[in-house]
Amino acid sequence: MKFGDRSRIPSIAHTLRNALLGEYGVCPRISSILLAICVSAAAGPLDEMSLERWAKLREVERYQMQTAEKFCKQQNWKAAAAEYEKYITLYEKSEGASYAQLRWALCQVHLRKANTAIKDGFQTVLDYWPDSADAAKARYHIGRTYLDMGRLDQAKKAYQALLSDAPLGKKPADDVDRLRHLSAAHALSDLAEIAGVQKDEQAQAECWKKLTFDVDRSEATAELCRRAAKSYTQWCFAQEAFDEGVRAMETAYVKGDLTLRVANYVCQIVSHLSRDEQTLAKAHRLADRAAAWLRRQGPQDNQPQKDQDKEVLRRVLQAVADVHASARQERQTGEVYDEIIRRCGASDATLARLAAWHESRDRFDKACSVYRQFKDKAAGLAHVAGGCRKRKMYPAAIAAYRQILSLEDADEAKWTAEIAGVHREARQYPDAIKVYRELMKIAPAKTPEWLWEIGTTHRDAGQYREAIGVLRQCTNFPSNLQVMAWCHRRLKEYNEALLLYNQIASDDRYAPWANLEIGMTWEEAGKKENAIKAFQSVCRRFPKSSHASTAHSRLQSVYKINMTLGGSTDE
Q1: Residue 173: what pLDDT?
Q2: To pair with 292 at 20 to 30 A between CA atoms, which of 71, 93, 113, 347?
Q3: What pLDDT is stored for residue 22 in this prediction?
């Protein structure tokens, strides 16, 4: 852990501690009162001193420590180190002496004097204050410093020495014991990191296991333990140690979340294993074991009567189906979906999952058959149409939308617009325009929307003059003018395009973009000098916009002209 990095171990009294250090201008008398109130508060991270210990410092000692701490906050490591050294010289017998020595060593780390930090800093804490709360911190920082230097063997040796004295497996009895425990937890986490680098999976798993089961859970260690539990669970599942993986998961999640979490982790593992024929049998064994466990988590009634029980059973069986599907167990997956429908009913949500599974296995005909069983007929047919569009089966998609239109209470405008969209995807532009014109009669209140679609369809068809004629009737500034100008450029009508870009440029929100397009238009027209002036204008007027960057790049790459953006040094 780097000095000053508090993200790894959250301090439960960080704000109050800052107040005590004078962060918020609290006077010494008030600080003393606050310290007395908080004398039993928990200690901060591995690079902080507990409030209890701060309360034991005399005013002169606290003032000297505050001075050093402020330099640390400013990241003035040299000055901070000098102030800590001054503290040790003046108050060698103080409660804060070992802490000052620890912080001095951490300053050396920041000054890139790692060996000095270890030999003259952290080791000094161990030699002179072996029973202090800072001794365990020093042991941890020796290992971490070696790790950051890339000296993995020495880091491992330091961490293992720390772990040999750590009180793992029992609740910490006092503050020193708690810090040893906390340091040991971080040492285990770092050892797992080292084992990962060295590709020693067994050693890595042992570290995760100890973090999962042996470390006492507290606010400071909870996140480390949760992460380790998740990693250990994945490793156990991959080794087919399913029960051990579940036991690890139970330490990380409450019972209500456990079932779906287990299913999610198992799905990830069996999906990976099932990709290789050599590990496919292993994937099947793990999936069968997980499926049996998942079934035991749901209601055991063959035909649950209560809606709540049915919903719980549905979720459990859906998780079972997902596990079998991830393991490519086609028969078992299909049987589970049949069971869900038989025991819980054929809800649209269940049918959607079943159809999606068929689609994922390239059985689109079966998926369509399932979609057509929806209670919400329109939703089911919409899925059919969407699948057809994805597969470029445009006539079938249109047929499905027309089936929706034949239903009672169908939204005629919505589904007719989808038909027009299919024609556009199929590049059947005349048919699409015809449908949009029908929509102007079906939903006249949306005429501006249909005009826009007609105009852009003409553009897509390469009918630029027709597009301009329709888009003139649109009111969605500046989009209509942007497309019109683009069409004029395709027709080589550059003056008309420039007039439209100047209209857009009158609005400050779009001025940078419009002025850049003016330069591009001049360039297309072969007017080199005008293009250069336009690009230079963008750079001067809108130096902080992305469009200025584009103009600047254009000037350099095309015209070999260098200039600063806006004449300033800002990027």
Answers
A1: 66
A2: 347
A3: 43
DSSP, residue by residue, 500-569: HHHHHHTSTTTHHHHHHHHHHHHHHTT-HHHHHHHHHHHHHH-TTSHHHHHHHHHHHHHH-----GGGSS
| b/e 109-118 (16+ beta carbons within 10 angstroms → b) | bbeebbeebb
Taking a C-beta distance cutoff of 8 angstroms, is the pair 512, 503 a contact? no
From CA 82, how far away is CA 69, in angstroms rounded? 11
Q: Which residues of 432-465 are buried (b: 16+ CB within 10 A; e: fewer)?
A: bbebbebbeeebeeeeebbbbbbbbbbbebebbe
Report the pLDDT value the prediction gives residue 240, as an integer from 0 to 100. Answer: 92
In the chain, which stretches have pLDDT less than 70? 1-45, 166-167, 169-174, 566-571
- CA angle 553/555/556 to nearest 5° reads 65
Please check whether residue 445 is in contact with residue 462, taking contact to mean a CB–CB distance below 8 angstroms: no
DSSP, collapsed to helix, strand or coil, labels residue 172 as coil
pLDDT at position 27: 45
Long-range contacts at 68-77 (CB < 8 A, ≥ 24 apart): 68/100, 68/103, 69/21, 69/103, 70/21, 70/22, 72/3, 72/4, 72/103, 72/107, 75/4, 75/110, 77/107, 77/110, 77/111
- Give me the pLDDT at residue 307, please: 83
Chain Cα centroid distance, residue 352: 27
Q: Say if residue 10 is preceded by a cis peptide, omega within 30 of 0.
A: no
Angstrom distance (rounded) from CA 337 to CA 351: 9
In this prediction, residue 80 carries a pLDDT of 93
Residue type, 501: Y
Q: How far apart are alpha carbons 4 and 46 in whole angstroms?
A: 9
Residue-wise pLDDT tens digits, 315-367:
999 999 999 999 999 999 999 999 999 999 999 999 999 999 999 999 999 99
pLDDT, residue 498, reads 97
| pTM > 0.90 | no
Question: Which residues lie closer than 8 Å to 472 by C-beta, 6 or more apart?
Answer: 480, 484
* CB contact set of 260 (below 8 Å; sequence gap of 6+): 315, 319
Structure tokens at 142: 């020796």
Question: Cα separation of 336 and 320, whole Å?
Answer: 7
Note the Cα 377 to chain centre separation in Å.
37
Nearest CA-CA partner of 210 in 235, 185, 230, 231:
185
Given this model, what pLDDT does residue 566 score?
67
Phi, psi of 78 (to 5 degrees): -65, -45
Amino acid in the structure at residue 392: K
336 contacts: CB under 8 Å, gap ≥ 6: 317, 320, 321, 324
- The answer to whether 100 and 135 have CB atoms below 8 angstroms apart is no
Q: Would you give the end-to-end CA distance of the chain in angstroms?
A: 34
